[in-house]
Amino acid sequence: MKIVVQRVKNAEVEVDGKTVGKIEAGFLVLLGVTHQDTKEQADYLVKKLCNLRVFSDENDKMNLSVKDVNGQLLIVSQFTLYADCSNGNRPSFTEAAKPDKANELYEYFCNQCEKNEIHVEKGIFGADMKVSLLNDGPVTIIIEK
C-alpha cells in the first residue's frame, strides 16, 4: 500500500462536473493498493498519516499534525501509483490490486482515518475524477508499507 500525501490549502474532486469531495486546509491523499496489501498495512499508514508532523507551529517549524491543526483529509483512490514503466513507454498496472480488494481497503482506510476524529472527504472509487488542489509549501510525501 502506498500513499502520496500533499499538504494543501484546499482541494476538491469532481466527477461528471459535480464536486463529490472538498476540503480546506489539510491533506490530499492519493492511495494505491497492491495485491498483497492488508488491513494491518492500512492501519500503519493511517497512524503515520494522522500523526505526520508537517504543519507549522508557532516557531514556523514543521512540528504539528493534521489533527493538531484541525485539518481535513481528501482521500482519492489511485491505482496508477502501482504503474510499472520499466518495459516500454506504456505503463503496466498488473501490480495494482483488483478493484474489489482495492475498494475494500480504500474504504477501510477512510473509515480508520475518521476514527481519528478527522473530517474525511472522498473521491468515488473507480470513477474518472478531476482533482484540483492548492499545494501548501509545496509539501509532498510518499509513504509505503
Write structural notes for this entry.
The model has no long low-confidence stretch (mean pLDDT 97). A hairpin with a 5-residue loop joins strand 4 and strand 5. Helix content is 20%, strand content 40%. The strands form two sheets. Strands 1, 2, 3, 6, 7 and 8 form a six-stranded mixed beta sheet that branches. Strands 4-5 form a two-stranded antiparallel ribbon. The chain is of the alpha/beta class. It has a single domain, classed as 3-Layer(bba) Sandwich (D-tyrosyl-trna(Tyr) Deacylase, Chain: A), CATH 3.50.80. The radius of gyration is 15 Å and the shape is globular.
- CATH architecture term: 3-Layer(bba) Sandwich
H and E string = EEEHEEEHEE
What global shape is seen?
A: globular
Structural class by sheet pairing and helices: alpha/beta
Number of domains: 1
Rg, alpha carbons: 15 Å
Unreliable stretches? none
**CATH fold assignment:** D-tyrosyl-trna(Tyr) Deacylase, Chain: A
Average pLDDT metric: 97
Q: Main beta sheet, described?
A: 6 strands, mixed
Strand content: 35-45%
* Helical residue percent band: 10-25%
The DSSP helix count reads 2
How far apart the termini lie comes to 6 Å
- Beta-strand segment tally: 8
The first-level CATH class name: Alpha Beta
Within CATH, the superfamily carries the name: D-tyrosyl-tRNA(Tyr) deacylase
